[in-house]
Amino acid sequence: MVSRMKCKRLLAVACLIAVSISALPAFGEDAKGNAGKEEAPAPLYAPGDQAISIRLGVFWPLFYLSFTPAVTATNLTLGGGGALQWGAYLTESITLSGELGGNFAYSPNWNILLQLPMLAKVEKIFTFYPFEIPISLAAGVSFVKYEDLWAVDMTVKPGIAFFWIYNSSWSFGVNAEYWMNTQISGTADQSRVGNFLSVFLSALYRF
Amino acid sequence: MKTAIRVRTALILPLAALLVLGCSSGSSYNGSIYYYIENEEVVNDSSLDNEAGFFNVVRLGTAASPVYYAACGQIRKSASISGSGTSRSITWDTEELELPTASICTALVAFGGNLYGGFLPYQTLQSDMGLYKATVDAGGTLTSGFTQVTDSAVKGYQVPYLYVSPESGGDRLIAIVAKEASTDSTSTPYSYVIYRSGDGASFSQIYPATGTTLTACPKSITYQAYTGYYWILFDDHLVRLDGSTLSEVSVGPTLDTDNYEELRSVYCCTLTSQTLVYATSSYGYIYKTADYGSTWTASSQATISSVVVPFISFAEIPSYGGTTTCLAGAEGYGYYTVDDSLALVRYADTTYADLRASAIRSFYVDDRSSASNGTTTFAITTDYGLWRMEADSSIVWNQE
Q: Is the ipTM of this complex over 0.90?
């Protein structure tokens, strides 16, 4: 009788523990499949899942590359920027996203250079639970505004990020991207490829 | 099914955006923004107010040791000038000159070695309004305060425009005078008269005929030494006035009145030609005549992103060892260079500061007649202070 009661108590405790563990966001469903080290981890995402991320951080003008070719200084200050990204998983580890952003830096006379990129981005995500490292390549156009001048540049932007998976919905991390904005001028010797580096803090939400 | 739709949406939207926008990549100008920023130089900002609107700049003193006075409501004087060529810099007195009681200066010229200003009182009596004179020594320093010119032609009236014409018989002081307001509220509130003086003390009416007045204010006057003509500019036409006989002829280009085109400034060349006269318009055109106004040639219309550029001023800038450059000042768009064929090029200023977006009311060219003395050009803006350029093979502006 006593042993049956002990068994019931043990079962109840075991159930409570199981419920408690499953209720822990980071170690609930995301952890499934990790019990046996020999087994491959179950995929976290499925095709069709979507993700939104927001990023804010510093924007670092590196140099201009002319078609001569020659490297010249940007004459810009350290700036800032941010981006909104929305995309979907094509496979368990590859996403396709659209990105809208904005970044700025100042000239020697404190005139502001504004760049508003509109990009398509492919990401390959390497997961090392509870971390993941997306490597990305984005391409598209940037609207560049400076005083009364403006241009639409072609932009290519490879990048790498490092995320901590907080739970099945949220991840937080840092994102570094290398910008190459090609600005073709009417005069060939004035054409430039702007090279910039952005380092943004990122929050990512999956749904 | 829903998942498939979501994936398709995620794919299609960015790709469509890329297709539409990537294909239309380009720019509204013929240069690279990065290139300009790469070459941007820090503006050497002197001590004058960068937000002030200026009316005139004049030079007194000698060619070797000039002294500048700038009118911006108050009058500021240069304290010292150092360096030469493009390294030349001007330090301005931090204190403004003492003006007639409670008044602002809206016009300033150097005439007969002295300083003449049109002053507008804002607290005192209307009788205090008018033309004032301050005597200046050979070194360019004021030796007296401003005293009112007592000729009844100018005393008690607003003098919005002053000009010194280099007539063959000697310089003449030209003043546009706004007469008293009409008591009839339906009439034009002011009438205008143009006076001339050889001594700065007594004035005689040169336009319109004595006993009559103008209902429209002349916008600018310039004198053509080669012909002896005064060119008087109104919104819709020019008057060519013979400086000797005072006979007049109405001339001017055909304006696009449907688009409210108006003339804004007139300039007689002396360096590139003795007969050329330029007129600028509010509708993006520069007009040129070489036959005393009989026929006019128009430039192509200047636009920026389909917005018409109004031209409000014009000047020839001599460059010793180089070529004379003509500049057309624009309202809100800095200035353009103008060549013999009237080709307009918005100047790619490397400072990219406020000058490029300012309204240049006029230019003051201090041609000191030798390469060693140099030439200094001031761009007088209505909104972004005073800018200075030392003539050289390149055009670089400094904000005073």
A: no
